[in-house]
Amino acid sequence: MISIVLENIHRYNLITKGDNVVIGLSGGPDSMALLYCLYEIQKELDFNIVAAHVNHGVRGEDALIDQLFTEDVCNRLKIPYHTINVDMNKYGKEKGITAEEAGRELRYGFFRNLLKDLGGGKIAVAHNKNDQAETLLMRIMRGTGIDGLKGMEFKSGDIIRPILNISRDEIEKFIKTNDIETVLDKTNLFPIYSRNKVRLELIPYIEKNFNSNIIEALWRLSQTSSLDVEFLDDYCEKKFKLMVKEIQDDCIIIDGDLFGSEQKGIKQRLLRMFVLKLTGSLQGFTEQHIVLMLDLFTELVTGKQINLPLGLTARVSYDELIIERERSFKYEGFEYKLGMGENYFKDLNLKFKLSLIDNYDGFKMGKDRKYFDFNKIRGNLYIRNRKFGDVFVPLGMVGSKKIKDYFIDKKIPRDKRDRIPLLVDGEDIIWIIGYGISDRYKIDKDTTKILMIEYKYTT
Amino acid sequence: MISIVLENIHRYNLITKGDNVVIGLSGGPDSMALLYCLYEIQKELDFNIVAAHVNHGVRGEDALIDQLFTEDVCNRLKIPYHTINVDMNKYGKEKGITAEEAGRELRYGFFRNLLKDLGGGKIAVAHNKNDQAETLLMRIMRGTGIDGLKGMEFKSGDIIRPILNISRDEIEKFIKTNDIETVLDKTNLFPIYSRNKVRLELIPYIEKNFNSNIIEALWRLSQTSSLDVEFLDDYCEKKFKLMVKEIQDDCIIIDGDLFGSEQKGIKQRLLRMFVLKLTGSLQGFTEQHIVLMLDLFTELVTGKQINLPLGLTARVSYDELIIERERSFKYEGFEYKLGMGENYFKDLNLKFKLSLIDNYDGFKMGKDRKYFDFNKIRGNLYIRNRKFGDVFVPLGMVGSKKIKDYFIDKKIPRDKRDRIPLLVDGEDIIWIIGYGISDRYKIDKDTTKILMIEYKYTT
C-alpha cells in the first residue's frame, strides 16, 4: 500500500519537498492508514505532517474517545496535533444546509485555517476507491453528465487524496498487517445519510445481484471519464482562445461563425465554460438555461436577449455572441445633441462652442480647441459616453482601435471611462474630449469648410 | 405522443417514404402503442407496416393467447402479420448462451428474414425511456465507459426506436386515452432476468430513497454522453485520416509522432478504432490489452511486438506503429544469392544467367533478358519475394511506387504476389521478374559496364 501511495504522490504531484500536509484524522481505518502511509513516506520525502481532528458534536462520549485516541496516537508519533469541537447540527440549521454539508464546511474551514497559520500547504483526506464508487453512484442517481462521472480527483485545489485508488478491503488488510489501532465511527453504520445508504444497502445489493466487482467497475468508469473530460475541456479551451473576440470582467464576445462550426456537445460545454469564465460558478444554471443559450446562438437573431441566472444576459449582435454580467455599479450614460454656437450641458458641467471658420490661418489648436473638416461630418453631432464596442481612428493611424484599448493605453481608470464625453456624428467618434481627435475628420488639402469646436468645464 | 414520435422520425431520419417497417409486436403496452402511433403516422407519411410476433415457447397457453390477440389486431387494422414459434430455452442451451440472448437472436433473425423477403427496410422496436434507464444501470453495474452510457440509439443499423424518449408512464396514458387493448407479458413481472430485477427492484428502490426522477436523470446522462461520444469519435476519425500511413485488409501503419501527440484518452480511443477497422470487432479485448498497446506505442522500442486477441499483433518500427492481422495463408518467403554465370533455384524452378558484356550493339531486350548498368549495383545480388513496404522506381518514372500498388496496377492476384521473384541488390529492387525493371539501374550515356541477365522457368 505504501508503494502505491508513493507512486500516486509522484504521478499526480501531490506532495513536494517541504510541503505542509494537514491530515484530516477521524481515527477510523481510512484516515489512520493514510496517516501511517504518509508517516513512512515522510522519511523518504521531506515534508511536514500535521494532524487535524474535528469533533462534530453529535456522538457525545464516543466522539470524545476518538478525540483522545487521535491525540494520543499523534503524541506517540510526535506529529503536531490540532483539534476543534463544533456542533454540525446546529451550524447546519443556522445556515439552512444539511448536517452533512455543515460537517464538511466546518471541517475544511478548520483545515484551511491551520494551513493559513502554517503558511500554506495541502489538505490530505482519506477518500478511497469505495468512496469514489459511492460518489459515482450518488451522482448517477441524482443526475450527472460525464463531467460528474470522473468523480473525485487525486488532487483538486489544495486537497489531495493519496489513497483514492485503494479499496476499503486493501485498507483493512494494511491495518491488520501493520497492527494499527483504529476507532470505529458508528455514524458510518446507520443508513441515515445518503452516502451511508449507498454504502450499506445499495452497493451490497449490486454486489450480490449484479456484479461482485462493482467497486472496480465504477473505478474504471471514473478513470476513463476523467481522461475524456480532460480532453474535452482542453479542446474547448483551445477553441475558446480562437473564438473569443473580447473578454472582460463582465463581458465575453464570441465569434458566432467559429462557435457555430462546433458540434452540439462541444457547444454546450463551451457555453458552460463562458459562464464559468465570467462568474466562476454555474450556480442556478440548469440544462434548460444552456439549451436556451444554445437556441439563441443558433438562431442568431440580432437584438434578441435572454436573461440568465447569476445576473447574466446573453444576446446576439450580427455575427457576435455576447454574454454580459450586470455591473455592480451601472453608470447611466448620457447623449446630448449639439448645435452651432454655444451649448451648455449642466449635468456634465460642460460648455461647447461650435463655429464655422473660413480663415485657414491662425489656427490655435489646443487641448480644448480642435478643427475639423465640416464636409466629412454625417448627420447630427452628439456628445455621449462610450458604448460597448465603440471604435476610433486616432490621428495619424489608418486602422481603427477599440475605445476600450485606447483608454487602457492612456491609463484612464476603469471607473472614469464611462464618463468621458465623446463627440460623435451619425457614424463615428470624432473627438474624445480631453484626448485625441479622429483621423477621419481631420483637415486635409481638400478641406473647404472648417468646423472649430471649443469646450470648457464650468467647475 | 404521436407528435413526439413524428418528430423523432423526422429528426433522426427513422423512416422514409416507401420504407418497409417491420414492427416487433409482443402485444404488450409498449409495442401496441408503437403500432398505433406508426399506424396513424402512416396516413401522413407513406410507408408499409408489417407486424411480426414471436412466440418464444416458454409461456404455453398464455403465449398462445398473445399470438392470437396480435393476429386479430393486425387483421382488424389490415396490417400484414407474420408469426413464428421458437424454443428460446432449447436454442440457448444449444448455443451456450443465456435464454435472454437466445430470444433476442431468434427475434431479430425472424425480423431480418422478413425484411429480406420484403426487399429491405427497417425493424421498429418499442424500447422506451425506461428501457434506456434500465440499460444504463445494467451497463454501469457491469462496467462501462462513456461509450456505453449513450445507451440505445434512435437508429442503429436497420433497427429504429421511434418511442425511445417516451416514458412507460406516458405510454400507459396513451394506451388508456386511446382505449387500446393490450396483453400483459407475465415474464416481465418476475425478477428472474437481470433486466427485470433492475426494473422491479433496483429502480423502485432508487426512486424511493434517492431520486424519484431517476428515469429522467439517466435519460439526460444518455443524451449528453451520446453527444460527447459522437464528438470524440468524429475527432478520432479525423485524426486517424491524418495519422494513417497505410491501411490494408490485414495491416494498419500509423505515424508514431502524430499518434504520440494526442492525449491519453484519445490514444486509447484511437487504439480501439484501429482494432475495429482491422477486425470489425473488439471481442476479447480488455482494457488491459489497450494499456499494453498504449505502453508499446509510448515506449517506441523498435522490434518489440505484442500478441493480441483476434490474431492481431502490434509492433513498432522506428516512427511507425504497426498493427497486423495474421494472414489466413502465410507464405513462407525465399531469398537466394546470385553469382555471375549460371544460377539454378530448384525451389523456384528458375534458372538465371548473368554475364558482363562490352558489346553495346545487338541488344536483344526481351521479357526474359534485361540489361543493367553494372556500376549502379551496390553489394550482392539476390532473388527474393516481396517484403512489407517494398518500393520500386518503374522504368521512365522519377518517384518510387509501392510494390503493392504496382502489383495492383498489373492486376496480379493477391495470392500470387508473394511468390513473384524480385532481383534486388543491397539497396533496391532492380527487376520484378516477368515484369518491369527499375529506372535506377537502366543503361544511360555514362554506362561503361553492362550486366545482362536472362532467366528461364524450368517447368
From TrEMBL, chains A, B:
<dbReference type="InterPro" id="IPR012094">
    <property type="entry name" value="tRNA_Ile_lys_synt"/>
</dbReference>
<feature type="binding site">
    <location>
        <begin position="26"/>
        <end position="31"/>
    </location>
    <ligand>
        <name>ATP</name>
    </ligand>
</feature>
<comment type="similarity">
    <text>Belongs to the tRNA(Ile)-lysidine synthase family.</text>
</comment>
<keyword id="KW-0963">Cytoplasm</keyword>
<keyword id="KW-0819">tRNA processing</keyword>
<dbReference type="InterPro" id="IPR020825">
    <property type="entry name" value="Phe-tRNA_synthase-like_B3/B4"/>
</dbReference>
<keyword id="KW-0067">ATP-binding</keyword>
<keyword id="KW-0436">Ligase</keyword>
<dbReference type="InterPro" id="IPR011063">
    <property type="entry name" value="TilS/TtcA_N"/>
</dbReference>
<dbReference type="GO" id="GO:0005524">
    <property type="term" value="F:ATP binding"/>
</dbReference>
<protein>
    <recommendedName>
        <fullName>tRNA(Ile)-lysidine synthase</fullName>
        <ecNumber>6.3.4.19</ecNumber>
    </recommendedName>
</protein>
<dbReference type="Pfam" id="PF11734">
    <property type="entry name" value="TilS_C"/>
</dbReference>
<dbReference type="InterPro" id="IPR014729">
    <property type="entry name" value="Rossmann-like_a/b/a_fold"/>
</dbReference>
<dbReference type="GO" id="GO:0006400">
    <property type="term" value="P:tRNA modification"/>
</dbReference>
<keyword id="KW-0547">Nucleotide-binding</keyword>
<feature type="domain" description="Lysidine-tRNA(Ile) synthetase C-terminal">
    <location>
        <begin position="381"/>
        <end position="453"/>
    </location>
</feature>
<comment type="function">
    <text>Ligates lysine onto the cytidine present at position 34 of the AUA codon-specific tRNA(Ile) that contains the anticodon CAU, in an ATP-dependent manner. Cytidine is converted to lysidine, thus changing the amino acid specificity of the tRNA from methionine to isoleucine.</text>
</comment>
<dbReference type="GO" id="GO:0032267">
    <property type="term" value="F:tRNA(Ile)-lysidine synthase activity"/>
</dbReference>
<dbReference type="Pfam" id="PF01171">
    <property type="entry name" value="ATP_bind_3"/>
</dbReference>
<dbReference type="GO" id="GO:0005737">
    <property type="term" value="C:cytoplasm"/>
</dbReference>
<dbReference type="InterPro" id="IPR012796">
    <property type="entry name" value="Lysidine-tRNA-synth_C"/>
</dbReference>
<dbReference type="InterPro" id="IPR012795">
    <property type="entry name" value="tRNA_Ile_lys_synt_N"/>
</dbReference>
